[in-house]
Protein: Carbon-nitrogen hydrolase family protein
Organism: Photobacterium swingsii
Amino acid sequence: MEVSLIQTDVFYKDKAKNLEWVAEVLASCERVGDIVVLPELFSTGYIFESPLDIQALCERYDTSPTISALSRLAAKYSTTIVAGVAEEHKGQFFNSVAVIDGKGLIGKYRKVTQTNIDKQYFSRGDTLFTFEHQGVTFGIAVCFDLWFPELIREYSKLGVEVLLHPANFGGEQSLHISKARAIESSLYIVTCNRIGCDVTTDIVGEYCGKSQICAPSGELLVQFGSEAEIKTVKIAVDPSARKKVIGVDLIAEMSAVSHQLALSK
């Protein structure tokens, strides 16, 4: 299984230009992976003057021109693309990730945890999402989601072997947290962060890049710098391994015992 990460700056609020850049990067790539991962909200940016700015850029997934364009690229390179695309659904707006192949949309994940920025713009997702590809079970988490071990444990219980993690973060805490989550839940965690910045009157969001793939052992299979680039990395997943489920059950059991001891004092 090969995974390609596209670490990119974002042409602010210019979906067409962002799609054009992705197409150029894939065309220049020597080897496109079985899975291609793009950052959170790769086609729009993340921080805006007003919620109306990003909400105007959100797309209905059943008629999304961004998803259609990515599907054409997925067909061209015989791959599956995982990309952060702002979503509108029945008058609500979501920080969502679309999973797309050459036939179109496979499914989507709506960010469950919310930063103060997310709360200004988006409704909260409430459902985990998994999909199978080449015998491997994948899950999706977005940026801040990774800070919550309970969410990642639920994915492990669902049999997820590789967690795909589109992100927009500026500090390196998420990189360390990624390593911890990979070890404690025995998952590969594939983090695709962006670079560059979003500038508004009240805030400047700066993004550090440093996308990485962390193995269940905690070993880094790759870590980017702070430039725009694409890298394709082979990961060896053993679908028969159930260590993660045992680990999750043990953690849950220990938590229950700790709770009982606390009540007995």
About this structure: Confidence is low (pLDDT under 50) at residues 242-265.
